[in-house]
Amino acid sequence: MVLVLGLLLALVFLLAFTRYGASPVALLTVLAGFSAIGVAALLALVLGFVQIAGRGAPTPTWADRFLDDEPDAVLCTDGNGQIMYANAAYGEMTGADNADLVRLPDRVFGTEAAAADTVYQLLKQVAGGAAGDAEVRLSRGAAGEGDARWYQIAARPLPLADPDGLSRAGESASHGTVWRIRDVTTERERQEQLFKDLQQAVDYLDHAPAGFFSCDHAGAIDYMNATLASWLGYDLADLDQLGLNLGDMLAGDGASLLASAPTTTDYDGLATIVDVDLLRRNGSRMPVRIHHRVPMSADGKPRASRTLVINRSTGFDADESVRAAEVKFARFFHNAPLAIAVIGKDGELAQRNAPFASLFPDKEQANGVLVRSPGRFVDLFSADTAEAVQRAMDDALAQRGRIRPVDVVIGEPAPAEGAGQASIADVQTQTSAQLFLSAASDEDDSQVLAFLIDTSEQKALEQQFAQTQKMMAFGQLAGGVAHDFNNMLQAIMGNVDLLMLNMPPSDPSYRYITPIRQNCNRAAALVRHLLAFSRKQTLRPQRLRVDEVLSDLSMTIDRLVGEKVKLEVDIGGDVWPVMADLSQLENVLINLAVNARDAMPDGGTLTMSTRNVMREECGAFDFKGLEPADYVLVSISDTGTGIPPEIMEKIFEPFFTTKGVGEGTGLGLATVYGTIKQTGGYVYPESTVGEGTTFHILLPRQTGSAQDEAGEVEAEAPAASQEDLTGVASVLLVEDDEGVRMVNATLLRSGGYTVFEADSGVEALEVLDEEGDAISLIVSDVVMPEMDGPTLLQEVRQRYPEMRFIFVSGYAEDAFEKNLPKDQEFTFLAKPFTMKDFAETVKRVLTQ
Question: Three-state SS string across 370-388, please?
Fold first, then answer.
C-alpha cells in the first residue's frame, strides 16, 4: 500500500516539475531515483523481505484454537520450509518468547549430531510423501538450557493444494510438513527405572539359595537361574546355544514325572512335588525336591512352567536322618526297573514313579491341547483288559492273597484299514505289560500297590519266533511236497518223452500228448516256486551289478505294467556288486513289479531304485533282524491301494492271496522271500493304506575277485547242446522210485548205453563189486533208504577215486552239498528234466 502511494506522489511531482520548466538533467535524475527505488522493492519482494498483504488479517478458526490448546508442540511449514504456524506449546518448548524467535525443528535439534541426523531422516521421509517418528535426546533440552531431555518427534506431509487442485503460487512443492513434538522424559525415566528394578529382581532370582527354571509343555528349558545352572555345571551364558530339555537335567525317567504334571488355571493352586535326582553335566547326580506347577491359558493350552528346585544333598530338614531316608527312597522309587504306582481305594492314582509316568505319557492334540492320562487306574488299559484289572483290584482291596498277574495292553489299538502305515516288522502300536497287584493297608486307609513290567519286547520276540517257526514249517512242508511231486513229474514227463519219441506226429493220438507235456511244464514251474520259498531251489550265483540288471530289465517291466502305470527307474551311482542268481533275481523284480501293477488298477507310478547302504547306516533303518553290514538296497515302490496291517503279517505265506480265483497262486511273494533269504539278503515291506507300498531288498555287498568268480560260474555252466547224444558206456542208475528208475533206464538204453539198476545205495555198492571197472558213470538219486546219495558218493570215491557222478533230485543242490567234503566233484541235475536234458548231461560228463 505504501509503495502505491509513493508512486502516485512521484507522478504528481513529476508533472508539476515539468510544468514549471525544470531542466532535463534534473528531471532525469529524479526519474533515475524512482527507478532505483522500484528495482529495490521488486528485489525485496522476490527475496521475501517484503510480502504483499492479503485482503485482510484472517479470523482465527476452530482448528487454530484447537492447535493452540494442544499440549504437544505443533509446527507447520509450507513447501519451501517457511513457518506457517506454531502453537504456544512449541514456543514454550523451544524457548521462543515471540513469533520472531520461532525456529524450525532442524535448527532446534541440529545442535547435537545424533538428533540432527534423526531430524534429517524424518525430512527425507516426508519429502518422499511418508510420515515418520523417532525419539531423540538433547543434553540441554530444546530450549538450550537445563538438564537432558527426551523428545518424541513425529512428522507428516501437509497437503497445500487449492480446491481446484493447483498449488499455491510461488510454492515449489504441493505439500508442507506438520511437526508434532512431545517431551517424553518422564516416561523414559519411568521405563529405565522399571528396567533397573527388573534387573535387580532377576539378580535376586539368579542368586537365590534355591534353583528355578521354566520349561514349555514339550520339556524345552526356557529359563534357568544361575544357582541351578551352577548346580548342573553349566555356564549361564551358554544355555541358549545348548538347547537343554528336561531329559538332559533329570536322571532316569524323572522328565516323565514333570511332563505328566496337571495344569491349573488357579495361580494359588498346589504344585506337583517330586523327589528326583538332577543329572549334572559331568554325569554325577544330585538329590533335589522339585515343586512344579504348569499354568493353563484361557484356551486350554499349557503355558511355561514355574518350577522351584531345592537342594537335598545337604542338611535341609531338621532331622538329617529323615532327609537321608527320603532321598534314598526317592532314588530307589524313581530308578526302579519297573513301573510302580499306589492306588487309593477309590481307584484313583495316588502316587507313581518315573517309569510309570513314562509308560503312560500324555498325548497332544493337533491344536496343542494336552490330553492327560486318566486319573482312574483301570482306565489306563485297553477295554478288553480293563475288566480283568478291576477284578484283581477288588481282590487286592479285599486283602486276598496270591493275586495272579494280569496281562494287560497299554495304548491305542493297531490302526484299522485305511487309518495308517504298517510294516512287516512292526504292525503293533500297543504296549504289552504284566501287572502285579498287592494290598498295602494302614489304619486310616486302604491302598493297592501296582507293579508293571513291560513285556513288549518279549511279546515281539515270541511273535517273531512263532512267525519264524510257521515259515520254517511251511518251508519244510513245501520242500517235502516239491520233492515227491518232482519224482511224479519226472515219471510223467519221461513217459511223455518216450511216447513222443516212438509215436509219429501223424498219429491221431499225438495231439493229446502235447497238452500233457505243457501241463507238466506248468506243474514244474509251480514246484520251483515252492522250492524257492523253502529255500531249497538250485541257485547259480554269479557276480552281478544290480543297477545293470535293473537297467536291462526296465524295458520288459515297462511292457508288463502297461500304459496306465508310469515306470520310474532311479539308479544310484557306482552301485556295489552282489552275488546272486541272475534269472532268480530277475524273477524277483518282475514278480514285485507285477504285484505293484495289480495294486494300481486305475494307474499310478512304479518306482524302482538302487543305492549303496554302508554298515553305519543300518542303525537308521527300523528293520528288525538286519545285521550291520554293507548292502545294496533295491526299493520297489508303488502308489497303489496299500496293504492293510492285518494282512501284512501273512503276505509271505505260501498260497496266501487276496486276488480272485484263477488270478494268482499265492506263491509270488513267497518266492521272493525264499529267493532273497537263500541269497543271504533281507526283504522288508512298508505300506500305507491308500498311499502305496514299498518293498526294500537288501543284498550283501560282494567284495571277492571278479575274475575268480567268473571262472567258477563258467565252469558250472552246462556245455552247449550236442547233436550226437548216443553212447556206448556202462551206467549205474541208482533210484528208489521204481517208476522214475524205469523211465530213466529206458531213456539211457534208447541212447545206446548199457544200464545197471539199483534201488538203494547198498545195492549199488554190490553192483560195483560185481562189475568193477566196467561202469563209467553213476547216476544216483539223493534221498534214498538205507544209504543216501552223498554217503554213496563217499563210499564209491574210496574204491574208485575217478568215478564220474551225477546226482538227480527233486531237492536243490544246496540241500545236500553241505554234507559232502569240499574236494568232492559231481554234477547235479534237478528233477523234473526232459529226455534231451538227461542225454546231454550224461554225454557231457562222459566226455570230460
Answer: EECCCCECHHHECHHHHHH
For residue 171, give the H/E element and its range. Answer: none
Whole-number Å distance between alpha carbons of 103 and 375: 75
Tell me: the pLDDT tens digits for 271-326?
Answer: 777 888 888 888 888 888 888 888 877 777 788 888 888 887 765 554 566 656 66
Planar angle of CA 829, 540, 581, nearest 5 degrees: 135
Is the Cβ–Cβ distance between 824 and 813 less than 8 Å?
Answer: no
pLDDT: which is higher, 366 or 513: 513
Q: What is the pLDDT of residue 539?
A: 60
The rounded mean pLDDT for the chain is: 76
E strand spans, 122-173? 132-138, 149-159
pTM of the predicted protein model: 0.40
The strand pairing partners of 631, in sequence order, are: 613, 700
426 pLDDT band, cuts 50/70/90, is very low
Rounded to whole angstroms, what are the CA distances from 200 to 196, 211, 222, 275, 802? 6, 17, 20, 31, 101
Q: Which of 105-119, 428-442, 544-558, 717-731 has the lowest mean pLDDT?
A: 717-731
Closest C-alpha to 810, from 828, 786, 824? 828
Burial 192-215 (b: 16+ CB within 10 A, else e): eeeeeeeeeeeeeebeeeebbbeb
Q: What is the pLDDT of residue 283?
A: 82
* pLDDT computed for residue 299 by the predictor: 75
> Which of 594, 514, 519 has the alpha carbon at shortest distance from 553?
594
Q: Are 435 and 392 in contact (CB under 8 A)?
A: yes
Angle at the Cα of 166 from the Cα atoms of 163 and 168, rounded to 5 degrees: 95
Q: Is the CB of residue 543 less than 8 Å from the CB of residue 577?
A: yes
* Listed range (173-177, 460-464, 467-471, 833-837) with the worst mean pLDDT: 467-471
Q: Hey, what's the torsion of the CAs at 525, 531, 536, 539, to 10 degrees?
A: 30
Strands 446-454 and 339-344 come out as antiparallel
- For 843, half-sphere exposure in the C-beta direction (CA atoms, 13 angstrom radius) is 19
List % helix, strand, coil for the chain (3-state, nearest 5).
40, 25, 35
pLDDT of residue 675: 79
Which residues, at least 6 apart from 371, have a Cβ–Cβ distance to it below 8 Å?
Answer: 362, 363, 364, 365
Q: Specify the residue for cell string 487306574.
A: 377
CA distance 464 to 625: 10
Number of C-beta neighbours around residue 357 at 10 A: 24
Hey, how many other C-beta atoms are within 10 angstroms of the C-beta on 356?
Answer: 25
Closest by alpha carbon to 83, among 158, 18, 194, 185? 158
The rounded distance, in Å, linking the Cα atoms of 824 and 644 is 50
Residue 475 CA from chain centroid, whole number: 36
Q: How confident is the model at residue 481 (pLDDT cuts 50, 70, 90)?
A: low
The full DSSP string for 83-99 is EEEE-HHHHHHHT-SSG
